[in-house]
Amino acid sequence: MEIISLLFSQELAVSVFTLFFKVFMVTLLGVVIIKLISGKSAPVRSLVSMGIIAVTGLAIVISIGFKVYGIAWYKPVVPVFLDPSAAFTETLLDEQNESLTVESSESVIPEQSGDTGSMTHSFFEQNKSTESAAMTRIMIIALINLICLIWLAGIVIQLFRFGFNFLLIIKFKRSLSAITDRSFIEMSNSAAVSFGKKSPPKLFTSHRIESPVTIGLLNPIVIIPQKLFDCLNENELKSILLHELAHIYNYDHIIDLINRVIIAVNWWNPLIYIINKEHEQAREEVSDNYVLRELNPKTYIQCITDLAEKVTLICSLPTASGMAGQGSSLSKRVSKILSKKRNTAVNTGLAFKAAAFSISLFFTVGIAGLHGQNSTEASFSNIMERSREISQRMDFEREGRNLTPEKAAELEECIKNNPDDIRSRSLLLLYYAGKRDELNKTKRKQMNLWLVENHPEADVLNRSYGNCPDPEIAEAWKAQVKKNPDNPHVLLNAGNNFTGKNIDLAIECYEHGKEIDSNNSEWDRRLGEIYKFKMIQSTGKERELAAQKSLSAYENVYNKIGSKSFPGIAKMNILPDMGKAAVEAGELDKAADYANQMLAYASKPAGNFYSDDGLSVYYGNFVLGMVAVKKDDIKSACEYLLKAGETKGSPTLVSFGPNLNLAKELLEHGERDTVAAFLKQCREFWTSGRDKCDIWIKEIEEGKTPDFRTQMYY
């Protein structure tokens, strides 16, 4: 279970993504630097390439350490695959709840009082693609974490090979024969003196190798192939000793060990191999430069070619170095040795080394302190839980809508035997709500009344199909509120019922619910909605007061969103209502600010993954247009109206259509052509309202004033 949890961990995915990105950028920058210094001396190229490899390895170690201890200089947000997956769960629940509340308000929006399940059905159907996109992004998280596991497995394999090679070397050393030839030993001592050393490494021969090599870590040794030992001339022997001692006294055997470990950790990165190849070639050139200090270039070339004819100069023994790197070309090596432009330096200055060390350390610590962070605090389990909740609700409501008369009769028989079977009653309520005949209307009322009287806390009563506006049911709810004054579930369900016929009672329920359950922002969200409906029904000062209370409630929700799972998406969902309420409340500066926030959200790159960016585009411009109207800037209002019409649509706009208050205001100011052009834009995204748009456009062209009342509530 822990492995599954890790596989879908967003925090791990962000950490892995950030780490891979940092390593790749370091090595990419390293390759660029290597290309820029390609004309520099071998010691410079060797030191720089070694520094880049060291930074790559240390950056990983220090990054993990900083992550564990919470040390960070900067935490850029990584939203690419996290916010979009969150958008489905957070947005669908918020918008579904809103759509259900709207559906229940039959007195407010008469046109929606027919099939109460159809709008929710339409909304669910249009969000199938959003659900699919969400699951795709969840799979991206899993894929990134799976890549992490593959990376770790690769490291284990590489280190296992490395350890196995060490065992081979240990076994190989036992088969070596020490060189006792006095002239050979004297030449070795002389070579060591040229490096400023008192005694050379030990010399051995072996019949199992084809190249002169150096092996060992703390006490490195030089090994000469047995078949080569008996036919070496003096210059060839000197070139071998000088070359191998150069590797030893420059600690190349230790550096090589470190490089191999770093490459094992970064085995997936092709750029690290390019950098390491450059480092190997630079080290070989440095060793060649040591030889050229003692031998004439032509003499050294003759030695190399002679040796190459006798044996291979490239070592195949693991963890050992020969007289040429793995990517070495004899012709290129000869041309470089003979080049008049060759820089025969064997070392870099102390100042350059200090600068290289300081820059490497600064860069390592700097990049290690950059930790990508989630744009959401939600865990995978949270996303999946909410996604399953929505999916189950969709399946349940689809089942209820698709009940056959025979199945409905079976469920009716079931509840006769088991009256407390809430699931069966909920399915029947869905079935009855989709029927127009009087018999099913009566059955729906009876079912709803029984639930109110016996299970007023039932979740189904907070759904559109569980809300049956009727005087008798309203009285039953009043009785339940008196009986259960401190039960938040009863208050929530009662408020949902009162929303359609008695807004003041709904407000009382929600206000009292907020008093007893102050930490739950749902009460403020419901109060924002109910005051919005009251605002729609009111005029003058009463309308302005309702707008102020709606705005205050929505702002309370907005300010609490920081602790929610998906703050960006949640804020974007509530901003349209805040903007519209601010306009009606006379808070024009606030309205403009909220509108600009909507447009800013929609312009973010990550917004392309969120299916309802179109809603932000529409309402951002809509609110700015309403503000312009309030300021008598009709020209700007017309521009904003047409910008609103440029939206590419959204599930909400497709389902409910656009708010036409701004269009109505501009019609009253004589901007008929602008409104007609806007309605032509609307018919492109409001597919279910094209016929209405065509009728309204025709009425405008004929000089009439269309009735937009059904589109002034959203």
Distance separating the two termini? 45 Å
Strand content: under 5%
**Outline, from the CA principal axes?**
elongated
Output the number of helix runs: 31
The average pLDDT score comes to 81
Q: Main sheet, how many strands, which sense, barrel?
A: 4 strands, mixed
Class from helix and strand fractions: mainly alpha
Main sheet strand line-up: 2-3-5-4
Describe this entry's structure for a reader.
Mean pLDDT is about 80; it is low at about 80-130 and about 605-610. This protein is elongated. The protein has helices at about 1-5, 10-35, 40-70, 85-105, 120-125, 130-175, 180-195, 225-230, 235-250, 250-265, 270-290, 295-310, 330-340, 350-370, 380-400, 405-415, 420-435, 440-455, 470-485, 490-500, 505-515, 520-535, 540-560, 565-585, 590-605, 615-630, 635-645, 650-655, 660-670, 670-685, 690-700; strands at about 75-80, 175-180, 205, 215, 220-225, 375. A hairpin with a 5-residue loop joins strand 4 (about 215) and strand 5 (about 220-225). The longest helix is centred in the first third of the chain and has 46 residues, at about 130-175. It is mainly α and about 725 residues long.
